[in-house]
Amino acid sequence: MTGASIITDGERRQYRQLLGELSSYAKKFEDHLLGKDKLPAEAIQMMESRLGTSDPAAIYKALTELHRHYDAEYDEALRFSGEFRFSPFCEYMRRDEVPAAHHEFLIRHMEEIHEAAATRGRNGINRLAISLPPGSAKTTFSSHRFSAWHLGRRPDDRWLQGAHTQTFAKDRLGKVVRNLMQESRYKQVFSEMGISSGSAAADYFEFTEGHGYYKAVGVGVGISGYRADIGAIDDPIASREDAESVTVRRKLHEWYEDDFGTRPMPGSPIFVVATRWHEDDLIGHELQKMAEGRGEPWHVINIPALAVENDPVGRAPGEGLWPEVFGTEFYLKQKRSLTGRSWNSLYQGHPVDEEGGVLKREDVRRYKNVPKNETRNGEMVKRIIKKVTLSVDCAEKVTQRSDYTAATVWIETTDKKHYLVHADRTKKEFVEMVEWIEHIARTWEVNQILVEDRGAGTQYIQVREKSPGPAPVIAISTKQQSKDFRFDGVTPMFASGEVFLPETGTDWIADVEAEIFAFPAGKNDDYVDTISQYLAKAREGSGNRKGVRKMRSSTHA
What whole-number distance in Å separates Cα of residue 497 and Cα of residue 482? Predict the structure, then answer.
């Protein structure tokens, strides 16, 4: 950085890259000098051309001095810029914690809240709700560092901080902010800001400069007498038990509407950063009020653990959050270990409205192990599996930008129970779609493939009429019946205990449940169609009814 100017994001990346390279080369020469590793001659030659010496000790010394110089230069650039921009402030305060992509996204929106507070709502965002999965450092950036940065810039502002309990608000929020504002590096950025010795409690403290204060309160705690120039709420629900309690949720809503929400001055912003627990949690409740035209207009953003289409952070669908720490594989493991309900709410930020759907969660039976025939010495001694079926809902048009083609695999047991054992969906061109369907069919050794006779499904059926595939293809005609009508027709099979879904252990059940419990109000219904199709066919029994035609399979497929 040259002169007193705010460092750009590009300059920061250049500094970090340079410092990383210097550190890496210095480590290689240090290991060489200690006899741990031998340097290749070309490495010494390269450094000689840049530093004017071939002596490894001299090169090591030069590299460490260069690293020290540029590190100090970068540190000063962050310190100066941190007074004016939130992101450099975060990195300056914790040099070893470079903000990740979703942190930068959060930081930009926190700056919008800061602008709203500075202009009394004329600019920026006045009501903001952002949901993120557990462990994403949302509290660190929004409730710890942002409050310290905002108050450093605006010491006359009154900050009102809410959380699920008074203990959490005091010990995990207020105390951390107070201690952060007393650190020496903080004072290097905001030299005139200090905590008043006369009011320095963890849940309430005032400042030596300005007339502002920081007040931390838990849900249900009275805050009469305290006004706010900025209001923040971090995780207003503490646990699944609280989330499922109608009483606890009502207490939260009433506290926000009657207490917390009445404290900010006109035009002052409020933001909520939370993990979603329930469709009627604070964010969900305010969204419902807004939809009914009786609430404030909120700017709502959800950042899921695994990206979906149009990801706010710019990830590809299926890509995991924070690859430097967690990443895709970590979250896929979490997805397999959790129930669909927990995964969809906590990690994907989409709790399902179970009261509004056709299928109720209490009607679903669960299994732990996939049914198998009983064998002894390689010979089947008891037949458990009656039939394995692949049910496919093809996209209307088969292009990579079209709707999904979805598939579910079902095992029907000899006692007439139906187990969903696999589910997947994809967007592929027609030839690839055929390969995808038949790979699933071969993998599960299915006895039949059900395909709706519509769109790309019709094309697939026609292909298999001419050239048999790995299993007989049964063309299904819906007779122009609506999706709602078809799903309504099979939901009694769930209630009667005929249908079983896995408890955990798969990376697809959460996606299936997100559809079936939200239907018909959900965004997607690809899996719903495959389920309706299979269960309707299973209910018919072995006879082929009108509207169903069957193609033979290839014995050598």
Answer: 25
